[in-house]
Task: inverse folding
């Protein structure tokens, strides 16, 4: 059986797969076929666990190839936390693709956090729609990892070292680095924010 960990990203998928590395009767990987095209994009080996947030754009093809034959994990984390994390990674990866490739005509002064929240909502609702008719669905909240991973382990009939797997959730893998701006840069950023809001202040005066 194949297992797909569907998620928006920034919600612990790297850690989840690290934990799955302690399962002996499944292989597991994170974004292993991102370079694939055609049938190769979803050609995963049997008895494999895959986490890849880009699969949310290939759900139709997952359904055709795997349908009810696979188990699906909906991996989530507090939407506020996910959106804040994505807003700090806005100029690359999936957020850049979403903001520039899908939304395309955002105003120049758009709110990064608002766009990140919109992305999270879009992905979560796409996943929920896809899972609506699936028989083997496991809901996994990162904030409840210890309990939910045990449920996941039992649902897929995993074998291996459960204790070592749970320990992986004690470490933050692929965490967003904390950016500390200089005092001068913080001052410039604050002035820019005030400048953008100035017309509204004037019109309301």
Result:
């Amino acid at each position: 059986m194949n297992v797909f960990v569907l998620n928006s990203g920034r919600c612990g998928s790297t850690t989840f797969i690290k934990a799955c590395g302690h399962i002996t009767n499944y292989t597991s990987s994170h974004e292993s076929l991102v370079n694939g095209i055609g049938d190769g994009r979803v050609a995963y080996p049997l008895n494999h666990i895959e986490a890849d947030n880009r699969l949310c754009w290939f759900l139709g093809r997952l359904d055709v190839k795997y349908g009810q034959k696979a188990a699906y994990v909906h991996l989530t984390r507090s939407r506020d936390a996910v959106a804040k994390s994505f807003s700090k990674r806005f100029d690359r990866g999936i957020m850049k693709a979403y903001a520039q490739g899908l939304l395309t005509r955002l105003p120049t002064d758009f709110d990064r956090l608002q766009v990140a929240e919109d992305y999270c909502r879009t992905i979560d609702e796409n996943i929920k729609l896809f899972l609506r008719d699936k028989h083997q669905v496991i809901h996994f909240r990162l904030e409840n990892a210890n309990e939910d991973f045990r449920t996941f382990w039992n649902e897929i009939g995993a074998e291996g070292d459960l204790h070592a797997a749970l320990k992986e959730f004690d470490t933050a893998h692929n965490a967003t680095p904390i950016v500390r701006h200089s005092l001068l840069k913080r001052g410039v950023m604050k002035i820019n924010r005030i400048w953008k809001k100035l017309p509204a202040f004037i019109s309301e005066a």
